[in-house]
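Hi V.,

Quick status before I head out on leave. The structure for the redesign project is tokenized and pasted below; the design run finished overnight.
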């Protein structure tokens, strides 16, 4: 500490006054530009040119201060108030801010999300077009913001945790473009009210345990929309409430700082020391930035005069950071009134010009489409009042959007009765294609790192291959995997010391170290966050959810964050995260879960693998590890002690995703299922064979993606009867499979009898074998339904 202080003092002394002055004025300029941006943006919404706006006014001074300490290589996981931080760090321009406000889908204009996110949701590029990681050490990295308040916390934890991994895991140090010996700090920002969320508390506790370079900034403006701090936080103070986490000399924990959000000089002084300490010691810190304001209220929806008292509003005016910084500059003779007036006037002009430029870039391509549409319609308009009205309506729009163009074209094609609409149709089709690219692309990787482009490799077996327990297949696989791929890191509850509850990692921590295979606290949400952070930074995490039923605790970051990352950055960030869990049939309300319908609906943007045994699981792991797509792997909870033949090419064979396998051929009924239920189905087919009912049993293998080559349809064409079976609730994943085959594959045309689903009951199973028998589908159910189908 002492030595730091000395060098700090020297540094300050060495800074020439003029250099210091210039720095302050540059910061004040950014403060002014950011404030103007907020003011002008709000007008754009109120006049209808943008739909909604949320701004960083009132937080400017704190953010120019914080941005000074955000270095190349660092990461930010923040929320929608951070425009000033972005401007000050040179990571975003005012023009780009406006482009996002207008939802400009051109990534060259709006580089954060290509118009996919609401305004003030930032991101920078992490991967190139081929899915290769960029040199993140030499750029400032912004993980893509999300709207759910506090959703940034688990990810922030993970981004900081990755620094620890890079510093401590042997064999990663050569990855010089991914980390400089773990010196990267993750700056995490959050509003005062969002600290009420469990995400915040879980993150702070985990950070205190893990000892990672996480700097959490709470922008405390006293409100969460209209609800004040008294309703949000114990003792109305997040720093007081967290004081038990304070690190002491001989404990772990976090450092806690309280800053005044209008006090530019005071903040800079504390931050300089504090961030250095985080970087060097990996001790996390909380910066409670108090006394911030919201000059324009929460957002463009509603006004704060409705819920703030006159006294509070007056206080906010007086303690506005911009005003305070101005007064501080004058009081310290760093500039005079004229100079500051100039800065303020120039800021106004600059922001206005930036706004205008963003608007033109946004609107011109649309205007071109309008123009093109009108000239096409004029060619066929003669004597057609409908088309003439269309032309008139479209030309009269002052601020047309792409939708107006498409609707006009479609209505002319569909209802105009014009005879020659071919050209109009062609243009419509061309725009449809263009818009598909703009609005639908990049849910999954589409380039060479797509999991769907990985070449399958068949499993091979020695002549005298052993039969071993399912868990041993995994155990031997993970052993080879960790020897071969240094980027792989695995963690979860009971995964380290005992090697997971089913021994997949048994003995491997001793072999590969606590830094790569380790236990975590019981905190599914932040286990997901750790995985997200590692994956975003180019590592290959396998994060465990101990049992499928507890996925709900970690579902939010998967659904809101992981699933949308590639899409919401239009392919600029990837999260190659594998979530490993085990589920389906065991016993009791919370250990027999198979909520697959919920999962596949919540997790579009991830792949969902439901291997029937551990051999298939290994092949899927291999496929996923070659790609950048995130996935959930649901191993069969009752399969770890079933014998399987040990493949000889464990880390080479790859099971393709979206390719079902026929595990029993037959001619009468196509039975479609997955995971543990397949064993019930196979048991039933023994009886059905005796009854001369021949079933073709298909294992779908993955629910997302689902039967990409429509192989189930081929089976149905042969049998003309189909039943979908799983252990989910009625209308769950069985209904999804049904829909895929009937509607997407056109299966209804090949049916001789009505198609069926067999599922579990609506309720969860009672404990014990009987609970299982009466609540989940059993082989007798399958036999009964099959017989009925044959009688119809
Ligand atoms: C999970 C979730 N719940 C509710 C909202 C709606 N919402 C958006 S902002 C906000 C208030 C946040 O207040 P605070 O954390 O203090 O941040 P501030 O806006 O004051 O900077 C709320 C409730 C949301 N975005 N996400
Ligand atoms: Mg607030």
């Amino acid at each position: 500490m002492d030595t730091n202080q000395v060098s700090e003092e020297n540094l300050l002394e060495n800074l020439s006054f003029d250099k210091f002055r210039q720095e302050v004025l540059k910061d004040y300029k950014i403060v002014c530009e950011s404030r103007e941006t907020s003011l002008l943006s709000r007008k754009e919404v109120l006049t209808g040119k943008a739909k909604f706006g949320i701004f960083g006014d009132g937080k400017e001074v704190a953010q120019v201060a914080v941005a000074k300490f955000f270095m190349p290589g660092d990461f930010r996981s923040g929320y929608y108030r951070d425009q000033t931080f972005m401007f000050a760090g040179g990571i975003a321009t005012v023009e780009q801010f406006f482009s996002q406000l207008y939802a400009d889908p051109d990534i060259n204009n709006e580089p954060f999300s290509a118009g996919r996110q609401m305004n003030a949701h930032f991101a920078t590029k992490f991967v190139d077009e081929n899915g290769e990681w960029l040199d993140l050490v030499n750029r400032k990295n912004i993980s893509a913001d999300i709207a759910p308040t506090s959703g940034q916390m688990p990810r922030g934890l993970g981004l900081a945790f990755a620094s620890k991994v890079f510093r401590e895991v042997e064999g990663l140090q050569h990855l010089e473009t991914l980390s400089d010996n773990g010196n990267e700090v993750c700056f995490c920002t959050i509003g005062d009210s969002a600290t009420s969320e469990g995400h915040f508390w879980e993150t702070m506790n985990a950070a205190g345990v893990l000892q990672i370079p996480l700097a959490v900034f709470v922008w405390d403006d006293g409100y969460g929309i209209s609800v004040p701090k008294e309703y949000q936080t114990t003792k109305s103070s997040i720093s007081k409430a967290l004081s038990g986490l304070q690190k002491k000399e001989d404990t772990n924990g976090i450092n806690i700082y309280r800053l005044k959000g209008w006090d530019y000089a005071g903040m800079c002084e504390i931050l300089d020391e504090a961030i250095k300490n985080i970087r060097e010691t990996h001790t996390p810190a909380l910066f409670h930035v108090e006394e911030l304001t919201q000059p324009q209220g929460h957002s463009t929806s509603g006004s704060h005069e409705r819920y703030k008292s006159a006294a509070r509003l007056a206080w906010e005016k007086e303690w506005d950071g911009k005003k305070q910084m101005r007064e501080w500059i004058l009081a310290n003779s760093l500039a005079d009134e004229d100079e500051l007036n100039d800065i303020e006037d120039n800021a106004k002009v600059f922001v206005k010009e930036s706004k205008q430029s963003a608007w033109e870039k946004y609107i011109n391509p649309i205007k071109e489409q309008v123009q093109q549409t009108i000239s096409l319609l004029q060619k066929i308009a003669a004597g057609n009042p409908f088309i003439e009205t269309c032309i008139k309506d479209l030309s009269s729009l002052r601020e047309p959007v792409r939708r107006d163009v498409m609707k006009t074209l479609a209505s002319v094609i569909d209802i105009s009765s014009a005879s020659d609409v071919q050209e109009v149709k062609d243009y419509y089709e061309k725009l449809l294609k263009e818009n598909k690219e703009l609005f639908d692309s990049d849910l999954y990787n589409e380039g060479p790192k797509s999991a769907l482009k990985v070449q399958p490799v068949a499993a091979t077996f020695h002549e005298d291959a052993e039969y071993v327990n399912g868990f041993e297949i995994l155990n031997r696989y993970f052993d080879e995997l960790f020897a071969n791929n240094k980027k792989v890191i695995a963690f979860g509850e009971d995964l380290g010391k005992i090697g997971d509850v089913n021994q997949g990692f048994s003995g491997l921590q001793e072999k590969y170290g606590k830094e790569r295979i380790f236990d975590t606290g019981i905190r599914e949400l932040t286990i997901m966050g750790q995985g997200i952070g590692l994956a975003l930074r180019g590592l290959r995490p396998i994060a465990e959810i101990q049992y499928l039923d507890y996925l709900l605790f970690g579902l939010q970051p998967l659904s809101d964050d992981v699933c949308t990352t590639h899409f919401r950055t239009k392919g600029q960030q990837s999260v190659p995260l594998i979530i490993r869990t085990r589920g389906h049939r065991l016993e009791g309300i919370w250990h027999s879960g198979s909520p697959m319908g919920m999962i596949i609906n919540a997790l579009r943007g991830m792949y969902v693998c439901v291997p029937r045994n551990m051999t298939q699981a290994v092949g899927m792991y291999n496929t996923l590890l070659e790609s950048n797509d995130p996935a959930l792997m649901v191993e069969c909870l009752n399969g770890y002690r079933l014998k399987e033949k040990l493949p000889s090419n464990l880390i080479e064979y790859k099971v393709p995703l979206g390719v079902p396998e026929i595990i029993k051929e037959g001619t009468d009924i196509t039975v479609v299922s997955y995971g543990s239920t397949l064993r019930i189905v196979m048991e039933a087919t023994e009886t059905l064979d005796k009854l001369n009912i021949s079933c073709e049993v298909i294992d779908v293998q993955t629910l997302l993606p689902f039967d990409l080559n429509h192989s189930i349809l081929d089976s149905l064409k042969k049998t003309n009867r189909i039943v979908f079976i799983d252990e989910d609730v009625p209308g769950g994943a069985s209904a999804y499979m049904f829909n895929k085959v009937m509607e997407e594959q056109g299966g209804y045309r090949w049916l001789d009898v009505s198609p069926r689903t067999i599922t579990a009951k609506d309720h969860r199973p009672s404990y014990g074998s009987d609970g299982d028998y009466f609540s989940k589908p059993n082989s007798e159910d399958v036999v009964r339904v099959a017989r009925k189908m044959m009688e119809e």
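Above is the designed sequence. The mean pLDDT is 96.

G. will cover questions while I'm gone.

Best,
W.
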